[in-house]
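Fold this complex.
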Amino acid sequence: MDLNTVESVQDALQSERYVSERSLATAIYLSLKLPKPLLLEGEAGVGKTEVAKTLATIMDTDLIRLQCYEGLDVSHAVYEWNYPRQMLAIRVMEDRDLSDRQAMEQIFSSDYLIERPLLQAVRAKGKPPVLLIDEIDRADEEFEAFLLELLSDFQVTIPELGTIKAEYPPIVIITSNRTRELHDALKRRCLYHWIDYPDVQKELDIITQKIEGISERLALQVATFIHELRREDLYKLPGVAETLDWASALLALNTTELNEEMAEATLGAILKHQEDVHEVRTKKLGELVSTASASSPGTSDN
Amino acid sequence: MARTEQFVNRAVRFGRRLRRAGVNVTSGQVMDFVQSVEHIDIGNRDIFREAGRACFVTTKEEVPVFDRVFESFWRGKAEYADDPMADPGDDTQPGMDGDSELDADGGEEGDESSDESGTQKTKSRTEMIESQEVDGDGEEEEGDADDVLSFSSSEVLREKDFADLTDSEMEQTRRFMEQLEWSIGKRRSRRKVSARKGRFWDARKTMRKSLQTGGVPINISRRKLKDKPRQLVVICDVSGSMDRYSRILLQFVYAIEKGMANVESFVFGTRLTRITRLLRNRSIDSAMERVAEQVHDWSGGTRIGQSLQVFNTNWARRVLRNGAVVLVISDGWDRGDPDLLGQEMARLQRSSYRMIWLNPLLGSPRYEPLTRGMQAAIPFIDDFMPVHNLASLEALAEHLGNIDEYRPVRRQNPLDLSPPKPRVA
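Structure:
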């Protein structure tokens, strides 16, 4: 697909049922053009990871995903040697009288190399893949520092094999939930975009795109309810992922019209903190449901 | 302010003494000296001497003269510190002998030989002892507590309540805080590093080494989990009721921010303000200035519950990672809703590894935490500690260093009103 304008990026995302703000489309467009890694931050469940997945589909290329966690190191992120095989090979070679040098060359060759996501991304042939470095805020500073080198040169050095440089730099999407501040050095190498909660209309679009068979009416009620809920003083506001879960849940229960009883029964799909559930259930639920029920297609955007 | 009158006087006398010994001292230089002392570690005699040398000496020839005068003026450690025995004597000496005499002598003083100054000194000594006997002991204590150049931090100061400190004692306390070693208990991270004895084997290294022994892994290389310092989050009350303490406590926050790796700091009165960035990489004075500019509800009312709620919703997830230790510094006078405070404290305790509440009032033996706010918070405090003098800070420093792998025993009773008593450490 041709991605030569911001509009074409937005349309392409739309065609893959990813409803995006124009600003996000612009950020993606620029990260493809420059090319520079794109750092996406936002609350949990606003569709950060989904951007990478959709982009891979649009560009018809591989998605290589690296889930970050504390203590993530080179052997899990870049490469590892296959030690058991190497040891077996050494045993076999003993019988064959190879010189040390030959033996070394053999056991430290590509055959014995286990590629981890970052090496896969660098060694990819053909189209540049989409490399998703997910939830980088979960990794520690040591890994972040390591990443700096990779992101500036897209090359990996394996002492026994030499330096491997990417034929085409991969399209890099980095996501963060902002559970900690990322280092400025990393931020400087990336384009940055903050994904916010969508407005009612956008959310309505997302629900109708993603949930098959939902009525326009229920979708609007769900979108309005969630939109109003996000104005409340809660510990964790529901993300888009929660909205979709909830809509599916309501649909699975054959709901056609949002009512208080149904909302109360399914509240666990959108609120995940006991205090929040308690607060909404005892004080706000009736009001929220009646606002949601009152919404009709004409008045959707408050 | 660092300079007490006494120190200024003493510096002026020192300058005069130098002038008599032939060093060309201007009053500007004396002022420089007074100012520079604010920036150095006066506990270190060599640094102190070098600072003086940098201020007063202008040619190489003056160096030995300066050193000699320095040695005799600021004598032994205790004496050059704050020796009320010697100094009133030194002080009276020019005064008693008459300033007029000094002026008259002015011309020849430059050429004064060391022998002469020696005799003069002996003379002044005798006079000094006499005057000392007249003055009695009361003055001695006074001088001791009030003088900036008190080099050894006295027991009295260690035990003195922050609220009662004079300006110069405040200064000493500040220096002491900066010298205090801050370290915090380590947590075990998930990152592995090489170690001779570790729980995990290092496949890569073992394999590489085994090639030297024909592919037989004789020496197994090992790795262990790396220890990392815990995150420390300080939330300090700067409302009106804490007025007497907030300045010194902020300096304390500054000191730990400087002394430790991962510190996030917040202050609150009616609103919560993050001050981490305001404190970082700055001198204490400019840091304090910036905090004062940014924090608007300085010395106003207190809404602890609301402030903690803001912390819990906006900051907790960003700064309370990986077993953070939370220090709340407040006297517990709360004008807000105690139920809210209890609820937010419960939440804060759940998301922290150790919840420490520092209350300056706890230092008083008569204090009982009876305020509604304190009552609401107490069930959710792991360690309830005083923070009213230097000794309590030392205790805190030790406590932080000893935070270990084991969580304190906690019971979840969000709505229960018969909570477990916190440990008073």
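DSSP finds 14 helices and nine strands in chain A.
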